[in-house]
Amino acid sequence: MSDPRRPRVRPYPPSSARPADRRPPARPSAGRRWLYRFQVGVAAMSVLTLLLTGAAWTLYRDVTGGITTTNVIFGGSAGGERNILLVGVDSRTDAQGDPLPAEVLAELRSGAEDGVLNSDTIIVVHVPADGGGATAFSVPRDSEVRIPGLGRNKINAAYPQTKAQAAARLVEEGMADPKQVDEESSQAGRQALIGAVQDLTGLGIDHYAEVNLLGFYNLTQAIGGVEVCLKAPARDAFSGIDLPAGPQTISGADALAFVRQRHGLAGGDLSRITRQQVFLAAVANKVLSSGTLADPTKLGALIDVVHRSVVIDSGWDILGFAEEASQIAAGQMDFLTIPTGGPRNTGSGDVLVVDPQDVQEFVARHTEPAPEPEPEAEPAPAPAPVVADVANGSGTTGLAARVAGVLGQNGITPGEIGNAPERTTSVVRYSQADGDAGARQVAGALGGIGVEQSDAVGQGRVQVLIGADYSGTGTSSSAGAAQTGGSGSGPSPAPAPATPPISAGGVPCID
């Protein structure tokens, strides 16, 4: 017996069993047509969303899946600003601690001994909270600072020496796995360098990125080379550089030699810092302004460079930062070098003297947000024009007219011109109601003669009485040194314009 509550379902006959005279279905209503289109649109959007989500997830997996991270950040800056420590290490291993093959080392033109680690490039990039232009501060590797456990030493000693001490301690404590020793000792070295940079600059470090020799080499190849310009040919056996003068595009071993050269440069390591700044500015310009991040081939090559040669802190959302960094237009990143004193010999080598207070004041000037502009004050009312009557009591014919001419050249309106009883001293008289401001202006134009108040002078005017002591000098703007009693040596030369900072826009020619 059928359940009366259950709806009856009538099976739809197959097409072969349908009556031949069956009428076509009625056209759907406008409402049903809209619903159908909406369902199709939702389906299409769902597919598109899945595709986009899949692409984003693939990119995220590709970038983050193989990157080497280190747990070194335990603080950071306040507010929305961020400070990133970029470190270039002269390492003969890749990011995973595996030795580079001999043929790769030969291609890198690397002559140092295996196992030697030098943090020769130390740069702090400050990204302001408002997302505006970034500022990169280079720290010379020979800057003498205080390092916990090492005393006063070059700042580039913080990483390798702390790492060596930590590695010896770990081995002594029984750690047998060389990779684990390398990983944990490297973490200690990085933390020591971060602490030294924070103490020196006053900036809290939020993120850390380290690139090795192989990274410098591969990065330029991945983006198709970097444009640089040399004032003169560069040849140096230590770095292996051999480049002509003028603008050129370099990559690979030539790019590595370009950023490593310091022998034969006038400023030594400071000149090398300029090389590094120019190189990084060119890289930033190439990556951010030429669509590199939107080119799948170049992006894939960059990801490979990151995996093989870069170490970042474990808390850094690198993709989120890349999206923000792409909004920093080329030319909106300035490269500066912290102030240093001269070299000093410590017995164990030359160091650069640095004053942390000077460095922190320098950094603050270039990182503090600009103050809000104060409202413009109402302009002060323009002073009433001075009218000067001139009377000649000197006994020299025509002097009153000449004095009136000097006053006119200085913006003072001459009034009545005439003679006065002979007198010895020259003076400018003013009324009590006007005060002495106008009289002093007139007196200054005539070489600084005296002023006095007089009830005989009408309001709104001054009276110039020329005496026998008047020498004829004045300060006419058009008379030049002859009227001012100058030596005739001419105007002082204009100061030389200040050298602009290196930025991510343009290719400056350097030594």
What is the overall shape? elongated
Number of beta strands: 21
Straight-line N-to-C gap: 102 Å
Unreliable segments of 5+ consecutive residues: 1-25, 34-57, 111-116, 475-500
Give the proportion of residues in helices: 25-40%
Counting DSSP H or I runs of 4 or more residues, the number of helices is: 13
Structural class: alpha/beta
The largest sheet is: 8 strands, mixed
Mean pLDDT: 75
Strand content: 15-25%
Task: List the topology elements.
Layout: H1 30-65, E1 68-70, E2 82-89, H2 102-107, E3 119-127, E4 134-138, E5 144-147, E6 151-154, H3 158-172, H4 178-201, E7 207-211, H5 213-222, E8 226-230, E9 234-236, E10 241-243, E11 246-250, H6 252-260, H7 269-289, H8 296-309, E12 310-313, H9 318-325, E13 333-337, E14 343-345, E15 350-352, H10 356-367, E16 387-392, H11 399-409, E17 413-419, E18 427-430, H12 437-445, E19 450-453, E20 461-466, H13 481-484, E21 502-503
Parallel strand pairs: 1-12, 2-7, 4-13, 16-17, 16-20, 18-19
Antiparallel strand pairs: 2-3, 3-4, 5-6, 7-12, 8-11, 9-10, 13-21, 14-15, 18-20
Helix pairs in contact: 3-4, 5-6, 5-8, 6-7
